[in-house]
Amino acid sequence: MAEALLLARAEELLHELGLRRAAEVVVNHADAAAARQLTYLAFLVGLLEAEREARYERYLQARMKLANFPFRKTLADFDFRFQPSLDERQVRELATLAFVEEGTNVIFLGPPGVGKSHLAVALGIEAVRHRISTYFVTFHRLVDDLRRAHADRRLERRLRVYNKPRLLILDELGYLPLQPLDAANFFRLVCERYERGLPMIITSNVSYGEWDRLIGDPVLAAAMLDRLLHRSVTVNIRGPSYRLKDRLRSGVPLTVPAVGREGGEI
Ligand code: ADP
Ligand code: MG
Questions:
Q1: 242: nearest Cα among 93, 146, 117
Q2: 104 and 228 share one domain
Q3: Is residue 203 domain-shared with residue 236, that is, in the same domain?
Q4: Do residues 51 and 22 touch, judged by C-beta distance below 8 A?
Q5: pLDDT tens digit string along 142-190?
Q6: Pocket residues: Cβ below 6 A from ligand 1
Q7: N or C: which end of the chain has fewer CB within 10 A?
Q8: Is 264 among the domain residues?
């Protein structure tokens, strides 16, 4: 068969087999292979690698969307020098995602603006890259959603949604005390994920000592913390708000906003 016909046939077959990227690049790869006198095997490997790379990219795009991140910031975007109270080695260790395998919860505690959400999302992005199913939700949304589901008698079904991802990121565990029903619903989720060994990343500006007040019931708060902290790493960040850093640098006097008042923080 003439070369051109063979190429057309190759494209057709690759398409039919669902190897879209390989079909797109087979002409170029064949030309390059001829020009550089590559072996048949080297040509084949190059073509298959192009296909695999394109598939991984498509997979990543889809999973990143599903993960529901509010923004895309990575560890590379994080300036550790700005936050010396943070142990960079510990964060890098977390980025290996061994904690997900172990079912260990990661809890970022600290005042507003110190990078809790940034780090939680960065670890989440790392998890997606490692093909770990991940879902991000703010605590406020979660509680609202479970309350509505409970009212519609579909709490079980809704809980299943939050139990599905291997890694659940709960952002901004609230400052405002929870209603008893909300606390009970959240407790269900904590128990179910704990029993399945499914880890969470939680960010909060509420220290553990304040959980009695947050949950509104000391016995329930203790039972919840017991499960959350059984296998857990707490990362305390004490430091200046990154949001206010420019003001700090320019020497403008700083009035620290009251907790719960700054740009949508709980
Ligand atoms: P928190 O969740 O603790 O309130 P965020 O993670 O939302 O804080 O951080 C506030 C903003 O500052 C975000 O835009 C975040 O990307 C940025 N930020 C915080 N800390 C750092 C840092 N050390 N390096 C780079 N950007 C940071
Ligand atoms: Mg935050």
A1: 117
A2: yes
A3: yes
A4: yes
A5: 999 999 999 999 999 999 999 999 999 999 998 788 999 999 999 999 9
A6: 73, 77-79, 82-83, 110, 112-118, 203, 242-243, 265
A7: N
A8: no
